[in-house]
Design goal:
The chain is an alpha+beta fold and about 700 residues long. The protein is built from 17 helices and 28 strands. The strands form seven sheets. Strands 3-5-1-14-11-12-13 form a seven-stranded mixed beta sheet, with helices on both faces. Strands 9-17-16-15-10 form a five-stranded mixed beta sheet, sandwiched between helices. Helix 11 packs parallel to helix 12. The radius of gyration is 26 Å and the shape is globular. The N and C termini lie far apart (about 70 Å).
Length: about 700
């Protein structure tokens, strides 16, 4: 059935907007079953070792305390594929912050007071948390996140680099980053007549249900997980996290419903992080800037609990002409918290280094940075040789440059100024793969002319409810307000989690299929909709099972203008403009919000967000919003997000690509390149804080302003 233009593409307000601003939308910690108790976790105070004793006697005498769970009395769990969830099962402490006890009390305040009174004795062991490029124990994994090979090589990268007319060899150091969603990781769990009912702040209720079923030895049909409203996740809620397991354990142990919201200061140690990376990029090119050799080497860490390796070198396999290429990930297994997904894993960190190196190549070759990227546009995906289903990068670069006013740019660094301020502009490209998974959905027509769509999708604040309703309305040729959407429960038709910018493409395909089949059934009913209504269910397993013959990616270009204060060293972003090629834009309002949100996170990555591993204590020093600085509206006066009209018939019935993550990918590099243009120095260790800028300015004094 062909989609009409009636609902899809319309600038539609999010359906839950009023509920959220008025407080009617309820989150996981706001579920209030009768008799609810509260829990507060106790985090390990040593970097590595074993618990030798937990003194809980005095704690149990405190007002309101119901239980203290430790490895000695907690319910036994069946191990699952994620060992970070094997909590309170033994005495080991694999890293600082690992949970060693849980206090349950009648109120949140009493639970917190009880946790503060727990005394834990440890047998500490030597720990190792320092990541360096020359560690003898670095290894290359067979696969990195996403199932990509840990290393790939084509041609003779070393030989081509040595013979190149223009060469760039640069190292970039990226700190660890943390997700910090506004809603902390929270769960409310209740055992009722042998059933487990959980309200969880999660990006995928179905995954949470399946993991809990295995760990607690319960049939999956006897568990319901609800994730109706989620206050952000950015990857850190992509799979079950400690709070949902601990809440279910506490509820089983006490016989009462239990709510656990993890304290923000503990999140850095237990819900994942973007691992730090030490990256080296070597690019060789002809005098005209066309790349002949591309070498991207990434060193990063993982924990000893579970291997997770961010695929930071993979984007270099996609972006540019590179007849000779080597991309490799090398990993150190350390006594650190386990890294995990953070918005655009791989692309965000890897593209910072690659796009910074491209800017350095443009300077070395004396070529405009936009033109350099255009000259290195490949005919097919370099790594696989597959044709692109669509590739709008050049269009994004050209149109973005026009809108930004790039043509008026003086290419010389360090010459444009306003009083004590040095000004600069920069550009970087972005990419993100098109990911689509199998999904199920139901569509029901009622006799009163309304429709109900059911799918276990998750709305993280992205507008999923609204866009899915638009897809259904178009397929049904029905008014948008006649379509009701039910999402966010494991009792609904199974669907993949909200992650990898794959949500709308996956869920929407199933919704479109179910709604289209329902429309066909209705068209064949001479008497109209029966009194009991009509229901159709559909799944997309067959459609998504085959490997596509095309390389499918979204692309974009981000332009930035910054100012650097020569007195304080502070860098401020004046303008950000993103231009994207992401297939058909299904709702301009929610899409623009997604793009701008990603660009804002990229701004934080470039200028404010950083996390330091304390070698002595084995933990991250910046562990709350007072020390880990996320950007706010005042940090950039002007942010624009635009897109080109891209028609790609090789994606899904809507013609859409994911948009949740591509906005962050090029932004940090664009800002870093703009800082170089402003101050005349290449600062390769974001965030580009005042101390780093001042260190350069003191080494290379800026000429006085001739106008003063």
């Amino acid at each position: 059935m062909k989609l009409s233009a009636r609902a899809l593409g319309a600038d539609t307000v999010r359906r839950e907007a009023r509920d959220k601003v008025t407080g009617r939308a309820r989150y996981a910690a706001e579920a209030r079953p009768a008799g609810r108790a509260h829990a507060w976790p106790v985090a390990a105070g040593v970097p590595r070792g074993r618990v030798t004793a937990v003194d809980a006697g005095a704690v149990l005498a405190l007002p309101g305390v119901l239980a203290v769970l430790t490895h000695e009395n907690a319910p036994r769990l069946t191990p699952c594929d994620d060992p970070t969830l094997s909590l309170l099962q033994d005495a080991r402490v694999p890293h600082r912050g690992w949970y060693v006890a849980l206090v349950v009390a009648d109120t949140l305040e009493n639970a917190r007071a009880g946790a503060a009174a727990v005394h834990v004795t440890y047998a500490a062991e030597d720990h190792d948390v320092r990541l360096t490029r020359d560690r003898p124990d670095l290894y290359t994994p067979d696969e990195v996140n996403g199932g990509y090979p840990g290393a790939r090589e084509r041609g003779d990268a070393d030989g081509a680099f040595a013979a190149a007319e223009v060469r760039v060899d640069a190292a970039y150091t990226l700190t660890a980053l943390h997700n910090h969603p506004m809603e902390p990781h929270a769960s409310t769990a209740e055992w009722r007549d042998g059933r487990l009912i959980v309200h969880d702040s999660s990006q995928g209720a179905g995954t949470v249900r399946d993991v809990l079923a295995k760990m607690f030895g319960v049939d999956r049909h006897d568990i319901t997980v609800v994730s109706e409203h989620v206050g952000g996740g950015f990857g850190s809620k992509g799979t079950p996290r400690p709070q949902v397991v601990l809440a279910a354990m506490a509820a089983r142990h006490t016989g009462r419903p239990v709510t656990l919201a993890l304290p923000r200061r503990q999140l850095a140690a237990v819900v994942g992080h973007r691992a730090p990376t030490l990256q080296r990029v070597r690019i060789g090119a002809r005098a005209d800037g066309v790349i002949t050799s591309l070498d991207h080497d990434v060193v990063t860490h993982t924990s000893r609990v579970r291997e997770f390796v961010e695929q930071a070198a993979v984007p270099a396999r996609v972006m540019y002409t590179s007849p000779n290429s080597r991309t490799v990930h090398r990993v150190a297994s350390l006594d650190v918290p386990t890294p995990s997904w953070m918005r655009a894993p791989g692309e965000a960190s890897g593209m910072y280094a690659l796009e910074s190196a491209m800017d350095e190549l443009a300077s070395a070759a004396g070529i405009d940075p936009v033109e350099l990227r255009v000259r290195n546009e490949p005919d097919t995906e370099p790594d696989s040789g597959r044709p692109f289903s669509s590739r709008g990068l050049v269009a994004c670069l050209r149109e973005g440059a026009r809108r930004f006013g790039w043509q008026d740019r003086d290419p010389r660094p360090g010459v444009r100024r306003e009083g004590a301020l040095l000004l600069g502009t920069g550009v970087a490209a972005s990419t993100y793969p098109v990911l689509i998974g199998p999904s199920r959905a139901g569509a029901h027509a009622a006799a009163d002319g309304t429709y109900r769509i059911t799918v276990n999708a998750t709305d993280l604040g992205t507008g999923a409810r609204t866009v899915l309703a638009q897809i259904a309305a178009d397929a049904l040729s029905a008014p948008l307000d006649a379509v009701r959407i039910d999402i966010g429960s494991s009792d609904l038709p199974a669907a993949p989690l909200a992650g990898g910018s794959a949500g709308t493409a996956s869920w929407g395909w199933a919704v479109h299929k179910a709604a289209s089949q329902l429309a066909e059934r209705l068209a064949g009913l001479p008497g109209g909709v029966p009194a009991e209504g009509l229901t159709v269910t559909a799944d997309t397993r067959a459609e998504t099972a085959e490997e596509p013959p095309y390389a499918r990616h979204a692309f974009g270009a981000v332009f930035a203008e910054v100012q650097a204060d020569t007195v304080t060293g502070e860098v401020r972003t004046r303008r950000l403009l993103g231009m994207f090629a992401a297939g058909r834009i299904l709702n301009p309002r929610t899409a623009r919000s997604q793009f701008i949100g990603g660009m804002t996170m990229g701004l934080g990555m470039a200028l404010t967000e950083g996390s330091t591993m304390d070698d002595r204590f084995g933990d991250f020093a910046e562990c709350d919003l007072a020390t880990y600085h996320v950007p706010v509206c005042a940090d950039v006066p002007e942010v624009e997000a635009h897109w080109i009209e891209e028609h790609d018939s090789h994606l899904n019935p809507m013609g859409s690509k994911g948009i949740g993550e591509i906005g962050i990918v090029g932004t940090a590099a664009a800002i870093g390149n703009a800082v170089h243009h402003a101050v005349g120095a290449r600062l390769r260790e974001p965030p580009l804080t005042p101390d780093k800028v001042l260190a350069h300015l003191r080494r290379t004094p800026v000429a006085p302003d001739p106008g003063r």
